[in-house]
Design a protein that fits this description.
Helices cover 56% and strands 16% of the residues. By secondary structure, it is of the alpha+beta class. The chain has a 5-stranded antiparallel sheet.
């Protein structure tokens, strides 16, 4: 696995950690801090999550993640300008396929949780901001700290995460190149088929 993919796996794990319910009035930095600490505590105590039971992890991740991410915006950013080529029906299928792929990836990353800790940097949010970057560092014994930034937007339903930046690499931007290649080869339908095929591979390998 490449270094970028390794970093993204860590970042996606921490993304999932930030996805438990919180009131819409909470500031995003406080939300990330409190929810990360809460879920880290759960992971330390739940042996099922730490023993590689991917289906248990997938069920838990899906339950807590879906209300707190803007998967439509994440998919739009990952697909880029080709998003306009997709019909409304195709857009819905893209969102669903990308969502399921991310949940599986989160699940696998969570099963690898061991002794990571998270350090939170001071917030730079100003009054009236509707897009905010919350900066953290993942620390693990014997390894260099990894910078992980969460990008949130304020919506009518509260703060939603729509990107994560690991060591300077954006999650949605990282997918854009491979998505564009799939679209060049097989169009929007080709990308949808590729995402659905990856989901089937996860299931067939016993990871889902």
């Amino acid at each position: 696995m490449s270094e970028i993919k390794r970093l993204l796996r860590i970042g996606m794990m921490l993304l999932a950690l930030c996805a438990l319910p919180a009131t819409a009035q909470e500031e995003p930095d406080r939300l990330v801090r409190e929810l990360t600490n809460e879920v880290l505590d759960i992971l330390r105590k739940d042996e099922g999550l730490r023993n590689g039971k991917a289906q248990v992890v997938a069920d838990r991740v899906e339950k807590v993640v879906s209300p707190h991410f803007n998967f439509r915006r994440m998919t739009m950013l990952a697909v880029g300008r080709d998003w306009r080529q997709a019909t409304p029906e195709q857009q819905g299928r893209l969102i669903d396929a990308f969502y399921r792929m991310l949940v599986r990836t989160y699940s696998n990353a969570l099963t690898q949780y061991r002794d990571q800790t998270v350090e939170f940097r001071p917030s730079r949010m100003e009054s009236g901001d509707t897009n905010v970057r919350v900066q953290t560092e993942i620390r693990q014994s014997g390894a260099q700290p990894i910078a992980v930034d969460y990008v949130l937007e304020k919506t009518e339903a509260g703060w939603k995460i729509f990107d994560v930046v690991v060591a300077g690499v954006s999650l949605v931007t990282n997918y854009r190149g491979s998505f564009a290649q799939e679209i060049r080869v097989g169009g929007i339908e080709g990308l949808i088929r590729a995402l659905e095929a990856r989901e089937r591979e996860f299931s067939a390998s016993g990871q889902g």
